[in-house]
Amino acid sequence: MDIKLSTVVGQILPKEKAKHHLGKNIISDKQFILYALFTIAGLIAAIFVNHFFPQIADVKIKKYDVNFLGLFPAKLNITEAYSIVLWLIILIYAGVGVYSWFDNDRRKKFVKRAPFRFACGIALAVWDILGTKTLILPQPFFPGPSRILEAPLMEGGYIFENILYSLRLFTAGFVSGVVLGIVTGVLIGWFPKVYYWVSPVLKITGVIPAVAWMPFALTLFPTPFLAAVFLIVICAWFPVAYLTAQGISSTQKVYYEVAKTLGARTPYLVFRVAIPNALPQIFTGISTANAFAFTTLVISEMMGQPGGLGYYINASRVWSAYYKVFAAIIIMAILFSLIMRGIGMIQSWMLRWQRGIVK
Amino acid sequence: MSEPALIEIKNVFRTYIDTNDNKVEALNDVSLSIQKGEFVSIIGSSGCGKTTLLRLLAGLDAPNMGSLTIDGHEIKNPDPERGYVFQQGSLFPWLTVEKNIASGLKARGVYKKQKADVAQYIELIGLKGFEKAYPHQISGGMAQRVAIARALINRPTALLLDEPMGALDSFTRADLQDKLLELWKEYKTTMILVTHDVDEAIYLSDRIVIMTPRPGKISEILDVKLPRPRNRADVEFSVLRSKILEKLHLASAKQAPEYEI
């Protein structure tokens, strides 16, 4: 009986793996190795260009003392640093390739991405030629890839401090904004009186870009840090509150009735029925708030903070150090993608019950 | 029948205004008493007020006039002593089978004490191995069994069932009917079942209450004295079926019949 049941379970709860037996494209070992080579070929080309393409333009290549993690003291110039980075990317792709080797679904994904990764390598090679080797691109606005690495080589510690400042600001503002938004949203969605009084205010103030409050924030709060936290809080608060309220009030009557016949009182109805039901919308609100918060974070750092990546961009711009601006932008791209990825992972875990209902 | 009845419904009226501003008399002077441990079916075409009556018994709705009592006290609010099984799609989609059943205990705040019951009820409804499945991953019949277990885990005096098998195919339905009888025998819960399926009513009940619409009232109460387990192909079964169908035809002669044969 047990065996039978578990087979049934297997049919009803298909494991991810079950899918690829239906699909006919199974990637053979040979194919996969070829694609792996294709993936890194672009980067190899970039390394090749970096080593063997003659340095036509007159670019001063300084050596810097670096001490990575305090473990590997070394003297590096930007060309060497650039090729180390290229090798690191190759290593990462190789790692991903090894990881993908054992599963056909992962193999497919890896193969699918190969042309793009190849193109990235080629783009780096071209950029290197135009931006460093020949200086065809107008300087100092469009520095080459190795030149951008000069920023972390020169002042890595300082950049790191600014990253930490941004992260602190973002975390403080975003987390309190989301919490405040959920609380407001639940109150609006649950109590008609609160809906009547608060939701018009929310609708009117919510559409104002948070940074418009900057002059007030800077005078009202004792420190610029708190002022920026305030701005991020209000920009995250609006979408979360709005969508939470929507989710709460869209709860089907039958769920409340079920809970009541089971003996539930109001706290159960709010926390175990209404909020779980609103969770998909709450997460839509959080994703929107996340995008707003990045914008507000960078703008407020550029306009009146003693630190942060936005501040770093602004300070570098003043000195026409565009390579530092690019460095900060690349760091932001990586950092913000990671944060979004993290939120996405929390979301898909919390909404795991939806898998299979929503596509 | 000398004992006082468990549930007393006395001269209940319930009127509501529909979306077209018409006054609808859902229940007109309805009286009924139900003994402890009895299996009663309420049957009738749609609009006869059978679901309204069940909702009043659950305490999800209140009568305009008349009284409903259980064990001598008046029914005012929903209470786990009266379990309710809804038509369909009433499981919390964000909870697994196991947690949906446990929600009966959690809602009352007794989960910690009676945790062990959950596994027992899963076993009882034959869903072992499906504990971690979400409602959309199981069939309609399984979902209704979970809904029944969720209500039963609170050990109700009476279980109110609102067409719990209405949306199921006939094989699943027959299966669930047997399960229901099994649970009824085991827990001696008073069962009140709203249905529009004549066979289902005869197969399960001690008594069948036939209701008629516009205004909703009880037209007849029939005792079913067939020995259990009942055979749907039995002659007496068929006789009773024709009798009820005839009553229902008479009861709603003006409109197209909606029950299934």
Average pLDDT for all residues of chain A: 89
What would you give as the CATH superfamily of the largest domain in chain A? MetI-like
Largest sheet of chain B: 6 strands, mixed
Q: Which topology of chain B does CATH recognise?
A: Rossmann fold
**Overall geometry of chain A:** flat
Domain count of chain A: the total is 2
The CATH architecture of chain B comes to 3-Layer(aba) Sandwich
Bin the helical content of chain A.
over 70%
Largest interface: A-B, 27 and 34 residues
- Work out the strand percent of chain B: 15-25%
What is the helix/strand order of chain A?
Answer: HHEEHHHHHHHHHHH
Tell me the span between the first and last alpha carbons of chain A: 34 Å
CATH domain class name of chain B: Alpha Beta
Helix run count of chain B = 8
Q: How would you classify the helix and strand content of chain B by structural class?
A: alpha/beta
Q: N-to-C terminal Cα separation of chain B, in Å?
A: 32 Å
CATH architectural type of the largest domain in chain A: Orthogonal Bundle
Low-confidence stretches of chain A: 1-20
Number of strands of chain A: 2
Principal-axis shape of chain B equals: globular
In brief:
With about 350 residues, chain A is mainly alpha-helical. Chain A contains 13 helices and 2 strands. Chain A starts with a helix and ends in a 9-residue tail after the last helix.
Write structural notes for this entry.
The complex is a heterodimer of chains A (359) and B (261). Chain A has 359 residues and is mostly helical. Chain A folds into two domains: 25-148, no CATH class; 154-354, MetI-like fold (Orthogonal Bundle), CATH 1.10.3720.10. Chain A is built from 13 helices and two strands; from the N terminus they run ααββααααααααααα. Chain A has helices at 2-12, 29-52, 78-101, 104-133, 145-148, 150-190, 192-206, 214-220, 224-249, 253-261, 266-304, 309-318, 322-350; strands at residues 63-68, 72-77. Chain A has a two-stranded antiparallel ribbon with strand order 1-2. In chain A, strand 1 and strand 2 (72-77) form a beta hairpin. The longest helix of chain A has 41 residues, at 150-190. The radius of gyration of chain A is 26 Å and the shape is flat. Chain B is an alpha/beta fold and 261 residues long. Chain B is globular, with a radius of gyration of 18 Å. Helices cover 34% and strands 25% of the residues of chain B. Chain B has a single domain, classed as Rossmann fold (3-Layer(aba) Sandwich), CATH 3.40.50. In chain B, helix 2 (97-108) runs parallel beside helix 5 (140-152). Chain B has helices at 50-58, 97-108, 111-114, 116-124, 140-152, 170-187, 198-204, 235-251; strands at residues 7-17, 23-34, 39-43, 65-70, 73-74, 82-85, 158-162, 190-195, 207-212, 217-223. A six-stranded mixed β-sheet of chain B has the order 6-7-8-3-9-10, with helices on both faces. Chain B has a four-stranded antiparallel β-sheet with strand order 2-1-4-5, with helices on one face. The mean pLDDT of chain B is 89. The interface between A and B is medium-sized, with 27 and 34 residues.
